[in-house]
Amino acid sequence: MVLIDGKQTASDIREEIKNEVAELVKQGKRPPHLVAVLVGNDPASMTYVSSKERLSKKAGFHSTLLHFDKNISESELLKTVDKLNRDDTVDGYIVQLPLPLHIDSQKIIMAIDPAKDVDGFHPVNLGKMVAQLPGFLPATPYGIIELIKRYNIETSGKNALIIGRSLIVGRPLSILMSQKREGGNATVTVAHSRTKNIKELTLQADIIVTALGKAHFLTAGMVKEGVVVIDAGINSIEAPDTKRGYRLVGDTDFENVSKKASFITPVPGGVGPMTIAMLLKNTLQAYKYQFASNK
Question: Cys-Cys link to 251, which of 132, 142, 210, 292 (CB 3.0-4.6 A)?
């Protein structure tokens, strides 16, 4: 069994980005600029945005956090988005989700300039992904594809099962893995909450990606020998023996499934760290687009 170390892979990617940025700065160019927009004080969102800010600075980026009160109006947030769209010193930005209930998240996403949408959530970028045109891939699926490529996992002609159909992970990944590309050419099935007899599908799958949000859903009895398991789920379960009183686990019963898997990601330390690394990669790409268009 090979443990897919997303933490180390993400570190390698950030180092590659750091070296490229250092070279650009040496040429007299400004560093890439990534902005994070955070509304409210959701602990998970605050932790995530803080990590993005810290790691982007370590990669040599200029990083800005715009933190607003949870009661900010939708119109005020839209004004901020418009300002970022028009600011030539900003290469890419993200609006951290979820947003408060009084704000229409889709309206905010639609207002983001697709050329600065480094989260890859705007329909223009999703459409470019489907058509295999240059654009920004959603960071988590992008990270999964990168792990597959860097670990030389064979996907061509394989049966891949993706459990979860969200626009953030499941649906984009199903498209990427079915396309004619490195890390693609798989025969992809998407399972979800209405799928019946899911065990029949998991037992046939050569590659399983879980993005369900249900702790230990995938068990050893559901997979065949030699399966590749990529766990994009993250769940907290009670752990009274720990300092925090809980611990993070994936959608997979790692201890038992790992005994049958040829490759498997841990949680934490698998897919999670790759998301921020690919966000930085998208931002560097946006930076290059902007310099190319301003020539």
Answer: 210
DSSP annotation of 222: G
96 counts as catalytic: yes
**Which one of the listed residues 52, 231, 285, 290 is annotated catalytic?**
52
Whether 119 is catalytic is yes
Which residue in 119, 206, 231, 251 is the catalytic one?
119
Give the pLDDT mean for 259-287: 97
pLDDT digits (tens, 9 = 90+) for 149-179: 999 999 999 999 999 999 999 999 999 999 9
What pLDDT was estimated at residue 44? 82
**What domains are there in the chain, each with its CATH number?**
31-113 (3.40.50.10860), 139-271 (3.40.50.720)
In sequence order, the 6+-apart residues with CB closer than 8 A to the CB of 249 are 215, 216, 234, 235, 236, 237, 267
Give SS3 for 63. Answer: strand
Active site residue 18: no
Residue 195, helix vs strand vs coil:
coil
> Based on C-alpha coordinates, what's the Rg of the chain?
19
pTM for the full model? 0.95
pLDDT at 294: 63
